[in-house]
Design a protein that fits this description.
cell projection, cilium, Flag_bb_rod_N, Flagellar basal-body rod protein, FlgE/F/G-like
Amino acid sequence: MDTIEQSLDVLLKRQENTSGNIANVNTTGYQAKQLFQSTLKEVQFVNHQGGSTVSEEQNIGGFTFGNAIDGSYIDSSKGTMNETGRATDFAVNSDGYFTIRMNDGTLAYTRNGNFKLNDQNQYVTQEGYQVVGANGQAVSASDNPDFRIVNIADEQQLTDAGNGYYTTNQNVQIDANPNVMQGYLEQSNVSMSDEMVTLMQTGREFEANQKVLSSTNETLDKAVNSLGKV
């Protein structure tokens, strides 16, 4: 029962992650999140029924209770570039990220260049966060806006802050010559075909575990209600 419960917990987390990726298939600049799992360490079982007096400890073997989600990583592969023709849309045609100043003053990073202009004619995100320029200040609308594009050495250390924003404690490197395309947006890198295959595989594994659970329940029922009477 513990093994089945462990397996169902893993499948539930996988299903939630896949559903989240599918829900963001049309989210500009979204980077798919993937999970990886590992096998739990083998546990040694013993009893105290050994020896002539049936009191000595004896090893009856090991058992592995299944798998567990060991962590997650961000798929940093680039999405396709979609031409919009809008002057406030931008896409980084390299490995860099736009720098965003959140409302609390902290810096976040995103591949989503779907910006707009505020009352001061400065670029802001759709949520109203300030887009940071190469000089560390707000970026005003111009023919050649100078965005602060950064490269992140270890993208797997990024923390997902939601809505396509990421934070990190590691040092970032400012790209001195970023390749930014105006009038374009980077699409989500989610592969619908891959996610649907994963979803179907997870569903089949759910069904297999449900059958095992049903069979185990019937065995326990007989043990309690039939063997108990004997």
